[in-house]
Each structure stands twice: as C-alpha cells, then as structure tokens.
Write a structure and sequence with these properties.
The complex is a heterodimer. By secondary structure, chain A is an all-alpha fold. Chain A has 11 helices and no strands. Helix content of chain A is 75%, strand content 0%. The longest helix of chain A is centred in the N-terminal third of the chain and has 36 residues. By secondary structure, chain B is an all-alpha fold. Chain B is built from 9 helices and no strands. The chains are: A mainly alpha, B mainly alpha. Chain B: It is a multi-pass membrane protein. Chain B: It is found in: Cell membrane.
C-alpha cells in the first residue's frame, strides 16, 4: 500500500519496519511497566483496593449514575436538536429579521464556555427567582450551548443539498416550507446523521459537568463514591473506563454511518463555519 | 457595571490565567499532536496502533474526567504538580488528540501522486515532506486548527471546576461577594468572546495568505 508519504516497502524498508515494530512495542511495554511500578510503589495495587469493584452493589451504583448521564444527555440532545433545527432554518431564511438573531445566537454561544453557562444557571438565575430542579440546572446550559453546534450541522446539511431539489419542489407547486420539509430536510437529515452522532458524543461528554451541579450523573457518582470509600484513583479510573467504552461505541457508530454514506458524507472538518456562505 | 471596575484586579488576574492556560496548553498540544500524527501515518503497524489508541482514548473521555483524575487521583500514586501546571498538561494531552486528527486529515488531503512525483525526482523523505507534502497539508488545516484553538480556550474554563482560579472561577468568586451576576458573568463572557474573535481573525488572515487557488 503506497501513500503520499511512503512507497510500497522494499527489502531494506521492510527490515527497518521490523526494527521499528520491535522498538515501538518495547517502548509501549516499558511505559505500561513504569505505570504499574508507580501504582505498586504507592500501594495502590493491593487487592483490597480493587476488590470492591468486583462487587455488584458498587457497579449498580455506578450504572445508576450512567443511567442519569444517559437521561440528561438524551433530554438535552432532543431539546438542542429541536432548537438547532429552528436556528438553522432561521439562518437560511430570506427575511433578515429572522436571519440576524439566529446568526447572533449561534455566533455568541459558540464562544462562551459551557461551564460559564452552568454558573449562570446555578448562581445568577436563582437571584431572579428562577430556581430550577437539579436535572434542569445541568440540561438547560447543555441545551443552550449544543443547540448552536447542532444548528451549524443542520445548516451545512441543508446547504449541501443541490439547489435543483428545492427548485424542482417549487416547480411541482409546493410552497417554500413544503419543499423544505418534504424534499430538502429528509435528504439533509440522512447526510448529517454521522455528524449528529459525533456531536452527541460531545454532549454526552459535557454531561460530566454534573460534577459541578451536584446532579447524580456518572462523574458525580464517582466523586461521592470516592469520598465514601477513599479509593480515589481506582474509582476515577473505573469511571473513566465506563465513559471510554460508551463513547467509543458511539464514535464507532458514527464512523460506520459515515462509511455507509454514498459520497463519504460530510466530515466535521469540511463543515467548518467559514466554508459556508 | 461599576462592580466590574471595583474588582478589576481579580478579574484581570483570572483573565491572565485563562490566557496562560490557553496559550501554553495549545502549544503543548501542537507539539504532542505532531508526534501522535506522525505515529498515525507511519508505515509501522505497532506505531499506528499506539497513535490510534491515543486518539481514541482522549477523544472519547470527557476533559473534566481527565482533570479530576489528574487533580485527585494521580497524587495517590505520588504524581503531583502545581495546579496550573497540571491543568496545562491535562488540557494539552486532551487537545493533542484533536490536533493529531486535524493534521492527519491535512496529510491525507495531499494526493498520492504528489508524494510519488517528489520521490521520482529523487527527493529524500525529509525533502519531500518539507518541500512538497507539508506546504500543501498545512494550508488545509489552518481553519480546523483555529477552531481547535477556540475550543481549547473554552475548555480551559473546566479548570475552574477543579480549583484553578481562571477567568470563570474569578467571575464566580466576585459574584459570591457582590451578588450581581448579570454584569459579572456578561463581562466574563465578553472576555472569552474577545479571545475567540482574535483567534478567528488571525486564522482568517492566515488562511487568506496561504490559500492556493486551483
């Protein structure tokens, strides 16, 4: 297999590749050994410190946390997608009084950290008499910040559908709204599906802000557990492992969906905001 | 508004910390990202696997989990650094995965024939990289790298959740004293927007400088 960087390896290159394989494997093993030694030297490898994670109650507690993570992620993803679709249609509107606020929302929210929004909901809104439930204190800021990202994905998808599709819809007598709903959106939705899934992985990662809100999602559950049993590094490693398994599976799904697209689909890089009109 | 001026020293200090976090961790992420990208495009299977494992791991873990692990977990195995340095290292390690992927997509965007032509006229690996591949690859990655820079600036706010007093934490503290959330949080938001728009302006200029019309 030759690439832009390398030709098909000849006998010399094959020998070098073998050497590099051995060296790379040794380096990786050495790194793992170093980590294990560091754990052992500080007594963190004792069986008693890991035993609890082989018991069901511990896992049931963490899986409860994971369930809350899912709940928060699904609710804010649904709300953010709905809001994002409205914003995307708004940005593509012919009326400037619709276009301007939608554009302003997307551009402003893009440059505000999610944590700042969480602080606003946690500390600013209660002063003005709006004290939400813990669940909404996490999901509202996530919805607000992710809606902008979903809006950009939807907009890129809609713009990517050839103009002839809308024109054909208008030609057979559909109104603008009908042409969008019946002709353009179904095609755009299919095209942006991989990006939607990978943005949703990002949203799932953002739910770890529950740590700040004290909403009992996975990371906060880990914090409570670690405070209770004192097994800090073990608990957080297990929590990280759960996140890794869940998110890696979802990312895999996004890649599979992308591979099934006829023309490779839209990769997030090709959809950077400046590539759009 | 006056509340912002009264607490200007604290907020300014917070802004400095945010800028330090952003600049230092982006620089670190760039270096590490180039390394990981080199691993991912190498012809050696084991090295590619290591690069892929790195990218998969750090793209799929929430940054806050990594920060919590580094701030509260790693001291248990005797690894401890000052909070600011820890935050910089963690954010750099996290963003490096994204930079590696952006660079890799840049390298992949250079057509195979370019590399083959370079080798056919007898350029060595280093020469073909320097004169043919990288100049073309870097042009396509300016915009993605700019977006990663902005994302890095936004992500540094998470350091506030583990006790680094950056702009977000400073705003939170001032609000605890003054209880005037609107001007304080809006002020902090404007500061973040300024950082992002400077980054956007610079990448826009860079891209226009480097763009090739085909």
């Amino acid at each position: 297999m030759s690439t832009a960087l390398f030709d098909e390896p000849g006998p010399k290159a094959r020998r070098r590749i073998k050497v590099a394989t051995v060296a790379g494997a040794l380096a990786a093993v050495a790194l793992v050994a170093l980590a294990v030694r560091q754990f052992a030297a500080n007594g963190q490898l004792d069986a008693t410190r890991w035993q609890p994670y082989a018991t069901w109650p511990m896992w049931r507690y963490l899986l409860d946390g994971l369930w809350s993570t899912f709940l928060a992620a699904v609710v804010s993803a649904a709300l953010a997608m709905a809001l994002g679709l409205v914003l995307a249609l708004g940005r593509l509107s012919h009326r400037s009084w619709v276009r301007a606020p939608a554009a302003a929302y997307v551009e402003v929210v893009r440059v505000i950290p999610a944590l700042l929004l969480v602080y606003v909901v946690l500390f600013a809104l209660p002063r003005y008499g709006l004290d939400l439930l813990l669940f909404w204190k996490l999901t509202v800021p996530l919805t607000v910040s992710n809606a902008a990202a979903y809006a950009e994905i939807f907009r890129a998808g809609i713009v990517s559908i050839e103009r002839g599709q809308t024109e054909a819809g208008l030609a057979v007598g559909l109104t603008r709204f009908q042409a969008m709903r019946l002709v353009v959106l179904p095609q755009a939705a299919r095209r942006v599906l991989p990006s939607i899934v990978s943005q949703s992985v990002g949203l799932l990662k953002d739910t770890s802000l529950g740590f700040v809100v004290s909403y009992g999602e996975l990371l906060y559950s880990g914090k409570v557990l670690a405070a209770y049993n004192g097994l800090l590094i073990q608990t957080y490693l297990v929590v990280a492992l759960i996140y890794l398994v869940v998110n890696a599976s979802l990312s895999k799904l996004a890649r599979t969906l992308e591979a099934r697209q006829p023309s490779g689909g839209l990769s997030p890089w090709r959809m950077s905001r400046r590539s759009l009109p | 508004m006056p509340v912002l001026f009264e607490h200007l020293p604290e907020l300014w200090q917070g802004l400095i910390v945010t800028v330090q976090l952003t600049a230092a961790s982006f620089a670190g992420a760039a270096v590490l990202g180039v390394l990981v990208c080199a691993l991912r495009v190498s012809p050696v299977g084991v090295l590619r696997a290591i690069g892929t494992a790195y990218v998969e791991t750090f793209q799929n873990l929430p940054l806050l989990v990594l920060l919590v692990l580094a701030f509260f977990g790693l001291p248990e195995i005797g690894l401890q650094a000052p909070p600011l340095a820890t935050a910089i290292i963690v954010i750099a390690v996290y963003e490096a995965a994204y930079i590696a992927e952006a660079l890799r997509s840049g390298v992949n965007s250079v057509s195979k024939g370019q590399g083959e032509a370079a080798r056919a006229i007898g350029l060595t690996f280093g020469q073909s990289l320097r004169h043919v591949i990288l100049p073309q690859a870097l042009r396509t990655v300016v915009q993605p790298l700019g977006n990663i820079f902005i994302a890095t600036a936004m992500n540094t706010a998470l350091a506030a959740a583990v006790g680094v007093v950056d702009l977000t934490a400073a705003a939170h503290r001032v609000n605890l004293v003054e209880a005037q959330p609107i001007p304080i949080f809006v002020g902090a938001g404007v500061a973040y927007a300024l950082i992002a728009s400077v980054a956007g302006f610079v990448t826009g200029r860079l891209e226009r400088r480097l763009v090739i019309l085909r």
